[in-house]
């Protein structure tokens, strides 16, 4: 198995890169070529091993802790442009870029698709205090594209399947994270990391 990983830290914290022309859809067809697997979460550059780990965070006012009113999270990621063609797909700091590609030399080579998934620990932690990672979710879209090609969801405190990337395609969306705020917890900074993986057998 070949896997490419991207990480995203989450304070109450979250975030974590491949490449080939503009199009009206965000599942883009690649010209067959040398085998390539690419994943980018947050800030990165095309066809590079990007070490940046971005964070997503939110501050909860003391009077609002645990009241069940969802709170939007913001990121330190500044990635707005697609590494595929430079199109401005995301609007940071409210959105985080998530995208990648799977290329083979011809239509019959290799597996039919690569699998994108994300893994998290059970909880964000602050010493002995915890918040379930499932309190954090996201919506998914991109500028000019209202269809979530990588679906919206919630972390589950384990490994979560996100999408299949078909052979010779580039797929990208922007995630807007939120904190459910339905847990009454002690004051402090809770941290954890989500690790995104794009893999092909």
Explain this structure to me?
By secondary structure, the chain is mainly beta. The chain has one domain. It has no helices and 15 strands. Strands 2, 3, 5, 7, 11, 12 and 14 form a 7-stranded antiparallel β-sheet that branches. The protein has a 6-stranded mixed β-sheet with strand order 6-4-1-15-8-13, with no helix packed on it. β9 and β10 form a beta hairpin. The N terminus is likely disordered.
Q: Would you count the extended β strands for me?
A: 15
Average pLDDT reading: 86
The stretches of 5 or more residues where confidence is low (pLDDT under 50) are: 1-6, 9-25
Oligomer: single chain
Please outline the major beta sheet. Answer: 7 strands, antiparallel
Compressed to H and E, one letter per element, the order equals EEEEEEEEEEEEEEE
Précis, in short:
This protein has 201 residues and is an all-beta fold. The chain has strands at residues 2-9, 27-29, 36-41, 54-57, 71-72, 74-75, 96-103, 113-119, 123-126, 129-132, 136-141, 153-154, 159-166, 169-179, 193-200. It has one domain.
């Amino acid at each position: 198995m070949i896997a490419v990983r991207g990480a995203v830290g989450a304070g109450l914290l979250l975030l974590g890169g491949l490449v080939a022309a503009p199009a009206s859809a965000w599942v883009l067809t690649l010209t067959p070529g040398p085998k390539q697997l690419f994943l980018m979460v947050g800030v990165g550059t095309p066809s590079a091993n990007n070490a940046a780990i971005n964070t997503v965070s939110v501050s909860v006012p003391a009077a609002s802790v645990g009241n069940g009113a969802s709170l939007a999270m913001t990121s330190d990621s500044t990635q707005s442009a697609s590494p595929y063609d430079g199109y401005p797909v995301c609007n940071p700091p409210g959105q985080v870029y998530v995208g990648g590609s799977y290329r083979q030399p011809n239509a019959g080579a290799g597996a039919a698709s690569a699998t994108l998934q994300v893994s998290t620990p059970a909880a964000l932690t602050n010493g002995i205090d915890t918040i379930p990672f499932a309190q954090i979710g996201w919506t998914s879209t991109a500028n000019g594209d209202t269809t979530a090609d990588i679906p919206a969801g919630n972390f589950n405190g384990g490994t979560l399947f996100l999408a299949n990337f078909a052979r010779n395609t580039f797929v990208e969306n922007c995630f807007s994270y939120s904190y459910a705020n339905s847990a009454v917890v002690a004051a402090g900074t809770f941290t954890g990391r989500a690790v995104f993986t794009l893999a092909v057998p």
